[in-house]
Design brief:
Tetracycline Repressor, domain 2; mainly alpha; homodimer; DNA-binding
DNA sequence: GCGTGTTTGAAATGTACGTTTGAATTTAAA
DNA sequence: TTTAAATTCAAACGTACATTTCAAACACGC
């Protein structure tokens, strides 16, 4: 962190904060440039458009995170015996927390932005992400498949997306949740705390036994009666 | 479904579809009234404002769903021995699927809207929801607490929100996921299929053993060792 | 110190939004 | 049929937005 920040830097810093808090659509360039104390036109001068600013904000973290993840995945794939699921999921922790070196609270901000990117419409973000980093995630799928050999591929597909939802939603509403947690349980929870709480949850979830029941047997196990 | 739809009805139908697809902020009243084939001013005439329209769209489902859930929760709370977690979660299935009687694809649409409500800024929706239906959800918390007596309250809080994220995100990206699933695995998955896949996932997740490890021990387990 | 290319500044452009208005039209009770 | 209320309609209002423009200020190699 240098003492003097360039205009680009100031814009990125203000943009990531506001985007994470308020979402991409609900944050205006006027808010960003006002917080960054730069001229409104400088966003379009330096980044071209709001869309490209959004990608630049994410890219600052992705170029750090994804090669690190790729490296971890490759390392795990190289070992002889398959890794356990919790081993696989654990490799996310350090690379994510190292985003705090990119910027203060970088890990939290990045995950919030990721959540916004998936829930806001922003179709260009999905494309941008899959196009640039799709092959890294293929390795993750392979690792989970090795860790849970009994899981049919389609079930694994769904569970990985369920898990993505867990993470992304949690981070998108992270502020609100942390506030409630502190008010109700007197426990201060930072991003690291949330990640560590997520690991056992996701490990158990992804490795859950596959239901063999038919839809009908799931309707109210208690009283029995009445179909859907 | 009557052959003639009132203006209110047409507005609600168009609004729920567009809100679910595009989110609340990114859907304009002009899009809604255009799809509903009614005059722009009729939204403010019938509902007062966009904010109140959003609440009316959700309310149409909540007034059906929440009393049903409340009734199921009360029934489960009345039994002598505590219910299993999967019994508790199963009671969601029928009430949710009955939303399909409120409107075609009602269950999917409602869950998508719920997701939008949590991730969009829309502070008024959180308030609206907690204020009207908070005590119903208190019963759910109690039931889960009985089913998982070893789970500390704060851990339960987080896991319930993780689970909410799983459901809400899955429904928000339901269309895309169902398309991929059909293309990659040749399996047609409807809302019921997704819900039934969610149950074992969530049961295992919520009941997962609480991690007793310290943060540091989670940094790259390296090789074998360590359980979940 | 000068002159060129880069960056910033204030202002304006055009578009889209939620909301309001008041007259026209439809509805339904008397 | 009359009449008053409820509803629909086209148009406009004021605001906020992303983006553009172009002159001023700046940086810095010569």
């Amino acid at each position: 962190m240098s003492v003097k920040h360039s205009t680009q830097h100031k814009i990125l810093d203000a943009a990531q904060t506001l985007f994470a808090e308020t979402g991409f659509t609900d944050t205006s360039l006027r808010q960003i440039t006002s917080m960054a104390e730069v001229n409104l036109a400088s966003v379009n001068y330096h980044f071209g458009s709001k869309k490209e600013l959004i990608q630049a904000v994410l890219q600052r973290y992705l170029v750090v995170l994804m090669p690190r993840l790729d490296q971890e995945f490759t390392r795990l794939l190289a070992v002889q015996q398959p890794n356990s699921l919790s081993q696989v999921l654990s490799v996310f922790v350090k690379p994510l927390l190292e985003l705090n070196k990119v910027h203060q609270n970088g890990a939290r901000i990045f995950l919030q932005l990721l959540g916004r990117g998936y829930t806001d419409v922003q179709g260009h973000l999905r494309w941008f992400f899959n196009h640039n980093y799709g092959r890294v995630l293929d390795k993750l799928v392979l690792l989970v498949q090795q860790a849970c050999p009994d899981l049919p591929p389609s079930e694994l597909f769904w569970r990985l997306h369920f898990s993505l939802g867990t993470v992304v939603f949690t981070m998108a509403s992270n502020e609100a949740l942390a506030e409630i947690a502190e008010a109700d349980f007197n426990e201060k929870v930072d991003i690291e705390g949330v990640i560590l709480r997520l690991l056992p949850y996701l490990s158990a979830a992804i490795a859950a036994p596959v239901a063999t029941v038919t839809p009908l047997s799931y309707t109210a196990p208690k009283m029995a009666s009445e179909g859907i």
